[in-house]
Write a structure and sequence with these properties.
Helix content: 25-40%
Strand order of the largest sheet: 1-5-4-3-2
Shape: elongated
Strand content: 15-25%
Mean pLDDT: 81
Order of helices and strands: HEHEHEEE
Distance between the termini: 87 Å
Largest sheet: 5 strands, mixed
Number of helices: 3
Low-confidence stretches: none
Length: 143
Amino acid sequence: MRIFLYLLPLTALLLLPGCAWFRDDRPEPDGSPYAVSPRQPKQTYSEAEAVNAAVSAISLRMAASSKGPFRVMPLKGKTTPAGAQVIESLIRMRLSKVGAAYPLLLEDTLTGPGEWTLILRNPDGSCFFTKTFHLKGKNHDGP
C-alpha cells in the first residue's frame, strides 16, 4: 500500500506534462484524403496486344461464371481474323472445348476508326461478355 502512495504523485507528475507532449498541433489537411488522378487516357493496343487482352478478359469471365464448360464458336460472317485468333487461343488454353454443352458465339467488328469491339453471346442471344479495344494507329483498318 505504501508503494501505491509513492507512485500516485509520481504518476500525476508524469501525466500532466504528458498531455502537452502528445498534443496534435498539426494543421488540418486540405483536399481529399485519397489522391485522385486525372482521367486516364484511353489505352491503345497493337493488334497482338488487343487479342491477348481479349483472351485474358474472356478467360477471367469464364472462370467466374457458374455456367460451363464452354464452346466458343464464330458467328457466321461477323468474325474477323483477330476474332479467329481469340477463338484459337481459347481452344489452345482448353477453355473452349469441342464437346462442351454451353456454346458461346463470338462476334467482333470495327465500331469506329481504330476501335475493335468483341462480343460473346449466350445461346439465347444475350451478352455474355463485351469489350471495346482502342487500336494503335490513326487509320487502322481492322485487327
